């Protein structure tokens, strides 16, 4: 009888250990990646990154601009390779199965490389050139080019002089080019630096011999600092360290933050990574951007999401099918010196824009758009930069 009782106790203890292990294992699996936080603005259910008590403004102390971040990195990794590129040998137009025309590029087998210190030298030369030609913080630069490394020299040179820049891809239509000049998304240095800090916190195991392959390094802001999220209907993870994510009830659609077990609502992003609005378009800005009582900017995405118990956001629906701008202007400085770091085809400074094209072909395309003539006049521009007007 005694042994039987001991046997019962033994089974009970064993079962308890099993249950406890299961609970602990479940808790381990459900590690919090996002935690609730009190924020200003419209009422909602807000979550921050669980790894940080507040927003992280920069990847390194004292870094407040893209220019200062680039300088720090170049000085730290001066002898390392920054750019590996393959020279364009030829290109051809081919017809796809669906009848569409595609451009086929023929590239050199061997890549060429440039180190951080080499690129940084050329960036400084370019930046000094802008000052020499009288350009300052009031200048606005439009870079019109296909993606290539030399565009980064110009862009980073612009960052050094705090000149506003808009990037125009050579494949854009005339309508899109005009739209980008008049109604782009306004992104600050603080936005990009905070986003870089978020990327650094997410990708912790990067080593010096790792390589990042960039197919579109010019027009996509994510090539400078990877942006948050993916608007497909799926789990997109927790908030990055540079922003808060808040769900705001959408009663008309049947999504509320009071729902159990997971609150649901429109996804609203606030914090250091949120852009300032649309250039020259206050009406559209007011539709999707709000500023709370503490001065924090909030962007209303139009996506519907729900938070899982671990703080992970899932996109489950869309509030509206809204227009999304795909080409983002940036802010910084531009420059140019003797000798020039690349072949530039300068355009006019009319309407407060200084146009710079990297190659003859995009330059010719740009001049061929009638709607851009108020912006682009080859003769005026070359005259303003001391070049030939022929």
Mind explaining what this structure looks like?
The model is unreliable at 1-25, 321-351 and 377-390 (pLDDT under 50). Helix content is 29%, strand content 24%. The protein has helices at 2-29, 66-76, 116-132, 149-160, 174-182, 189-202, 282-288, 360-367, 378-384, and strands at 34-36, 45-49, 81-85, 88-95, 101-107, 112-115, 140-145, 164-169, 185-186, 235-237, 243-248, 264-271, 277-278, 289-291, 297-307, 313-318, 330-331, 345-346, 353-357. It folds into 2 domains: 1-30; 34-82 and 114-390, Rossmann fold (3-Layer(aba) Sandwich). It has 390 residues and is an alpha+beta fold. Helix 2 packs across helix 4 (149-160) and helix 3 (116-132) crosses helix 4 (149-160). It is globular. The strands form 5 sheets. Strands 1, 2, 10, 11, 12, 14, 15 and 16 form an 8-stranded antiparallel beta sheet that branches.
Task: Return Rg in Å.
Answer: 26 Å
Order of helices and strands: HEEHEEEEHEHEHEHEEEEHEEEEEEHH
Quick one: how many beta strands? 19
Helix content: 25-40%
> Which fold name corresponds to the CATH topology of the largest domain?
Rossmann fold
Distance between the termini: 111 Å
How many domains, in number, for the residues?
Answer: 2
Quaternary organisation? single chain
Judging by the overall fold, what is the CATH architecture of the largest domain?
Answer: 3-Layer(aba) Sandwich
**Helical stretch count?**
9
Q: Tell me the overall shape.
A: globular
Roughly what fraction of the amino acids lie in strands? 15-25%
Supply the helix-strand structural class.
alpha+beta
Mean of all residue-level pLDDT scores: 76
**What is the CATH top level name of the largest domain?**
Alpha Beta
Low-confidence stretches: 1-25, 321-351, 377-390
CATH superfamily placement of the largest domain: ANL, N-terminal domain
What profile does the largest beta sheet have?
8 strands, antiparallel
Domain AMP-dependent synthetase/ligase: 104-183
Transmembrane segments: 6-25
Protein name: AMP-dependent synthetase/ligase
InterPro entries: AMP-dep_synth/lig_dom, ANL_N_sf
């Amino acid at each position: 009888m005694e042994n039987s009782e001991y046997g019962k106790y033994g089974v009970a203890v064993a079962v308890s250990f099993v249950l406890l292990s299961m609970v602990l294992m479940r808790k381990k699996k459900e590690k919090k990646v996002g935690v609730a936080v009190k924020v200003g603005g419209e009422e909602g259910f807000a979550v921050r990154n669980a790894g940080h008590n507040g927003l992280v403004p920069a990847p390194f102390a004292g870094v407040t601009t893209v220019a200062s971040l680039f300088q720090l990195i170049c000085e730290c990794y001066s002898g390392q390779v920054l750019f590996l590129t393959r020279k364009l040998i030829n290109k051809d137009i081919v017809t796809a199965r669906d009848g569409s025309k595609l451009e086929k590029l023929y590239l050199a087998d061997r890549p060429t490389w440039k180190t951080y210190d080499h690129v940084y030298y050329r960036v400084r030369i370019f930046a000094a050139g802008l000052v020499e030609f009288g350009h300052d913080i009031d200048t606005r630069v439009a870079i019109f080019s296909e993606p290539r490394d030399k565009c980064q020299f110009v862009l980073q040179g612009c960052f050094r002089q705090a000149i506003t820049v808009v990037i125009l891809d050579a494949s854009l239509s005339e309508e899109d080019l005009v739209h980008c000049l008049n109604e782009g998304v306004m992104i600050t240095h603080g936005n990009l630096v905070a986003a870089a800090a978020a990327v650094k916190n997410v990708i912790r195991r990067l080593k010096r011999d790792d390589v990042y392959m960039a197919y579109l390094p010019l027009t996509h802001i994510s090539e400078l600092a990877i942006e948050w999220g993916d608007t497909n209907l799926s789990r997109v993870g927790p908030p990055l360290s540079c922003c808060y994510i808040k769900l705001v009830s959408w009663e008309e659609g049947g999504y509320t933050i009071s729902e159990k077990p997971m609150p649901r609502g429109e996804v609203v992003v606030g914090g250091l990574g949120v852009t300032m609005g649309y250039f020259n378009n206050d009406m559209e800005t007011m539709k999707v951007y709000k500023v709370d009582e503490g001065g924090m900017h909030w962007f209303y995405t139009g996506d519907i999401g729900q938070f899982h118990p671990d703080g992970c956001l899932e996109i489950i629906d869309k509030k509206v099918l809204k227009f999304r701008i795909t080409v983002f202007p940036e802010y910084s400085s531009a420059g140019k010196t003797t000798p020039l770091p690349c072949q530039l085809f300068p355009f006019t400074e009319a309407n407060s824009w200084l146009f710079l094209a990297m190659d003859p072909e995009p330059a010719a395309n740009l001049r061929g758009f009638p709607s851009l003539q108020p912006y682009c006049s080859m003769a005026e521009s070359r005259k303003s930069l001391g070049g030939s007007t022929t």
